[in-house]
Amino acid sequence: MRDPWFFLALVFDLFATGGYIVYLVKQEKWVSRSSCVLLFAGFIFHTVFLCKQYVVLGTAPVLDLKMALSFFSWCIILVFLVFHLKFRIMVLGSFVAPFAAFLMIISSAMPLAAGPVKPIFKSIWLTVHVTTIFLGNGLFAITFVVAVMYLIQEHQIKQKRFGSFYTRLPSLATLDNINHYALICGFPFLTLGMITGSIYAQVALGSYWQWDPKEVWSLVTWLFYAALLHERLTVGWRGRRAALMSILCFCILLFTFLGASLWAKGYHSFSTMGTGGA
Amino acid sequence: MKAQIVNIGMNHETAPVELRECIAADAGGTRKILDALREFPCVKEGLFLSTCNRVEILFTSEEVEDAKKEIIALLSDLGQVKDSAVSDCFYSLEGLEAVKHIFRVASSLDSMVVGEPQILGQIKQAYQLATQEKTSGVIVNRLMHRAFHVAKRVRTETGICESAVSISYAAVELAKKIFHSLEGKEVLLIGAGEMAELAARHLVNNGVSSMMVANRTFERAVEVAENFDAKPVSFEEIDRELLKVDIVVCSTGSREPVIYFEQVKKSLRKRRNRPLFFIDIAVPRDVESRVNDLANVYVYDIDDLKGVIALNVEQRKKEAVRAERIVQEEVLKFGHWLNTLSVVPTIVELRKKADAIIQAELKKSSSLMEHLTDGQREDVEVLARSIAEKVLNDPILFLKGRAERATVDTYLDIARRLFNLDRNHGVKYGSKSDDT
Predict the structure, then answer these.
(1) Which residues are CB-neighbours of A102 under 8 A, at least 6 positions away?
(2) In this predicted model, what pLDDT tens digit does every residue of B152-165 receive, in sequence order?
(3) Domain B167-309 falls in which CATH fold?
(4) Domain B4-162 carries which CATH code?
């Protein structure tokens, strides 16, 4: 059974993505404005879907990869919409919307898990843990996207070869600024998510830290982001090097999110979460 | 007979600069021309535009040939040159050709540097003078408002004005792509050539907050600094300034580079990697080319900047095609409006409008008239028609009576606005200026 709210969210995300891509080519303002409205509408439907799932499951809807991807996509769009209000960079949507829509498509293609939810998951700590972690992930996704845009733009200015992206992308300072801002906001979320995660582990499993593969990789991710933040704040890293580093960090994050969940054995693995397996 | 729109002018392509210089007029000269235009019996409305690249007289007249002769004589008089020398350089356009020309001029499609933004301001000024001198009438008013509208459309819907086509513009554009905004940025000027000063002037106009000038001879630095309200510094202080500034404009005549790789590299960490933009317009170059390899440092020499410009010129040519389409579209719309500006079509439209209202109202009241017989319904219709006829009778007679007078355009225009004929015709004239 496919939830109609999820379906609506997916359709609107896809339309918004199409719109943003048209905007990238045609540069008509109204196209990006309407894409933004579509994306917002999709976001609202998605929110309704998540709320409904929360009520049905009695906990945050991230128990299998299907749900996690959809929640990740929701977080990215939330962060994008907030950033859109602050920075008003239309073209950012042309990069973020396809990414979010891509996650949604994978999510929708995955089989639906069934079965009762273990009582252990019905904890407020789990909800807080995953919400903060995923908001952090959403912010880091923005740093990744902006870093890619930065590298494209920087390459054109440095090499003095101006392709069609030159006029379409914002200035280097703006891109670096957004990267910095998203990193500064994302890091506390990641930290908070890990702390609440370990509290949840203490409450549910009786131990703060168990050397579970995902825990270890999360720590690695955290250390990398901490290093990037440290370099940015103390030494004044910026520009190309910071962009490359945030891309590397995000790759590690993705590995932690996918790899450690899918292939590694551990209690974070979706296959052991007892909802039927992903 | 109907008045024709005529445009007589010369531009950078048809006339040499010596001749344009002679005829180009300041505001006082423009007033004199407009005075003369007002006195000519065969010219109804007129506008005079004079810039360094073009001279244009736009007027409406019923006796076109006579008017042209008088105006060419007037212009050669103004420039104190012989009629025969001038007339070859003039082009003269009539009707919609003239409309198209003025739209193209306003949208900067006819400029020497296509897309340059000054021309619109100059046209607005010319129009303002014409309204002050009361030489503009219904047609010129409408035409100019449409021209401003077209220019705005071209500017917003095509990229023709976006790209920079001069060295200093290109440098400013690049700086904006690096720093986003130049506000609060600091500039160091090394050496002081004419081109460097021009670039510096552009940077200041774009909000640069402070400027330093360094030169081998300190006296010259002081001199240039005074022009910009800048701070003169000695050559030895460049190292220290490199820690602070964001943009460096180099234009010394030095044979050896002035800025070295090691020198910049050293400063980067202390600058906390803030981006540094070198605009090197000196030949031979002042900045070692390896400097561009450093992270967050961007070096553009004169050839790079010229490359940017060449690209932009190419881009503008493409955009110009789109702009021409917009102009064509607007010329058609204007032509339509011009056609309505005679008595018979206006009367026809008035009647049509009355008819449409009657039909609409009858339809609305059809439920009220259900119990009437067919005959009675016909009577109601006849009544409605005769009321409409009576109401329209006087305005129509009035317009017919004015048909042969010079002021007919004004009355037609007012009548069309009073009865809102242009909106109902499916032709929308968009901008607010039409309603004023």
Answers:
(1) none
(2) 998 888 877 766 66
(3) Rossmann fold (3.40.50)
(4) 3.30.460.30
